[in-house]
Amino acid sequence: MTDAVRTMAREDRNVSGPAVTFSIADELKRLREEPEWISGTRNSVTVVKTANLSVVLTAVKKDATLCGHEVDGPITLQVLSGEIEFGVAGEPRTLRSGTVIALNNAVPHDIKALADSEFLLTIVRDVK
Fold first, then answer.
1. What is the pLDDT of residues 58-69, one digit of tens each?
2. How far from chain centre, in Å, is Cα 44?
3. What Cα–Cα distance (Å) separates residue 47 from each residue in 22, 51, 115?
4. What does pTM read for this prediction?
5. What domains sit in the chain, N to C, each tagged with a CATH number?
6. pLDDT by residue (tens digit) across 77-94?
7. Helix, strand, coil proportions of the chain in percent (round to 5)?
């Protein structure tokens, strides 16, 4: 499997404005139909993108890893399905469907999918 992944907003989606609405189920279905998912280990789409807020929907296959991540700003990650190992400061935490984890600014973390999984990542940035 390749590790191709596309996280950019798709051209046919409105990701900013005074109010953005999207269907998680529809977006996940589309993610799983794209070549990045079919031939790779994960796929993501940005569903909201403003000056200080990003919301990213991600699907990962069992055993896929996302290592050494650190974000400028606090984040939340909500596991929608499956099970992931979420490492924070060398401490692994098992997160299952329905679990949310919140991290403060610039906390290094990594992710390993223990099963095919889907999660919603919210990133808040300071507006400068």
1. 999 999 998 877
2. 6
3. 7, 14, 23
4. 0.86
5. 24-124 (2.60.120.10)
6. 999 999 999 999 889 999
7. 10, 45, 45
